[in-house]
Specification:
Elements (H helix, E strand, L loop, with lengths): L4 H19 L3 H7 L4 H10 L17 H11 L4 H11 L4 H6 L2 H13 L4 E4 L15 E5 L2 E12 L6 E7 L9 E7 L5 E3 L13 E12 L3 E2 L5 H37 L1 E2 L2 E2 L4 H29 L5 H26 L10 H7 L10 H15 L2
Parallel strand pairs: 1-4
Antiparallel strand pairs: 2-3, 3-7, 4-5, 5-8, 6-7, 9-10
């Protein structure tokens, strides 16, 4: 159920001002410290950002996909690490529970996820398993009322803070995706350990780390869905997550374009602002056109998803186009800023590094191409 339009517009305006007045001034500090101030995280919780996609019955805002995407666009106008702080709670860390959880599982976890009391993570990727998600090697062996879970998960977003992991592990001898099941694994279970956060190219302040399970006893009651349904759950979660990330890409692109316009309108060369030079205008025109196209694709797909349509292909297309688009926009922004675009003080080089990740996580661009082609062939065009 969508929010009342006036209430949603007020929420969107509040988030817009929060981004402009509170978050953007902190960007350099977050980059330097590689951490988001706890006071800001507390403000995000108070705004309800940790529960955007969780039903009101469980303390969330219960936004539709269309509404969530519009919020994600606004959050895209600042360092992506801010959005990442609550992104796993809104998307891949909670949606398996939302889609496949029992009433008891939802009642136990969702209210605390929505409030931000609990941070969640989605543990699928492994040292030898990335794009081939059906090749999961982590194993969960049934032992009475528990599964004994053993394996290592890699590049897990928010692993350093997470209290609950949605873990994909192999439970049977069936090959490929059919042998994978999903589990809710609290951090405080015996045998769970977290590696040191990785040093990354960009998105400072958003941490990723290994999660290691060593004979961890996971209650049977913590399994999501039936045995062998984990891959299906993971793919449904990623369909939604790809739309959310697409919307973030649109927001970052729009922020970059606005920064370029402001800079080009004041920076002078050859006796006039560089915005009056046609080759600069061409860079702006290409960026604006692609950003508008991505926004339209994202919002149209979100509306179709809200209407109950199968949007696997469209979500992949949105993620593919939007993530590639924002990379091109960031590259043009560096070019428009010239030498200043390469210097840290202006923030353009930071965003240039930040957006590179969008073409990799939630499925690489190449995986999106495969999904788009597969679904197109399946639909007959």
């Amino acid at each position: 159920m969508a929010l009342d339009p006036e209430i949603f517009d007020a929420l969107l305006d509040t988030i817009r001002r929060f981004v402009a007045e509170r978050l953007r001034p902190l960007e350099a500090e977050v980059e330097e410290a590689d951490a988001i101030p706890e006071s800001v995280v507390a403000e995000m919780k108070a705004l309800g950002l940790f529960g955007l996609s969780i039903a009101e019955d469980y303390g969330g805002l219960g936004l539709t996909m269309s509404e969530e995407c519009r919020v994600a666009i606004e959050m895209g106008r600042t360092t992506p690490a801010f959005r990442s702080a609550f992104g796993t709670n809104v998307g891949i860390g909670s949606q398996g529970l939302v889609m496949a959880g029992t009433p008891e599982q939802k009642a136990e976890w969702l209210p605390r996820i929505a409030s931000g009391e609990i941070v969640t993570s989605f543990a699928l990727t492994e040292p030898d398993v990335g794009s081939d998600s059906g090749a999961v090697k982590a194993r969960a062996v049934r032992d009475g009322n528990v599964y004994r879970l053993t394996g290592t998960k890699r590049f897990i977003t928010n692993a350093d803070k997470a209290q609950l992991f949605t873990v994909m592990a192999r439970t049977g001898d069936e090959p490929g995706a059919r042998g994978v099941s999903a589990f809710l694994v609290p951090r405080d279970l015996p045998g769970v350990s977290i590696g040191e956060p990785e040093k990354k190219m960009g998105q400072k302040g958003a941490k990723v780390a290994d999660v290691i399970f060593d004979d961890t006893p996971v209650p049977v009651a913590n399994r999501l869905g039936g045995e062998g349904e984990g891959f299906k759950i993971a793919m449904q979660v990623l369909d939604r997550g790809r739309l959310h990330i697409s919307a973030v890409c649109v927001g970052v692109a729009e922020r970059l374009i606005a920064d370029c316009v402001a800079y080009a309108s004041t920076r002078k060369q050859f006796g006039k602002p560089i915005a009056e030079h046609q080759l600069i205008q061409a860079l702006l025109a290409d960026s604006k056109t692609e950003a508008l196209a991505a926004r339209a694709l994202v919002l149209e797909t979100a509306a179709a998803k809200d209407g109950g349509a199968n949007t696997t292909m469209e979500a992949a297309a949105a993620k593919y186009f939007a993530s590639e688009m924002v990379g091109r926009v960031a590259d043009r922004a560096v070019q428009i800023f010239g030498g200043a675009g390469y210097i840290a003080d202006y923030g353009i080089e930071r965003l240039y590094r930040d957006v590179r990740l969008f073409r990799i996580y939630e499925g690489t661009s190449q995986i999106q191409q495969l999904i788009i082609a597969r679904e197109t062939l399946k639909r007959g065009g």
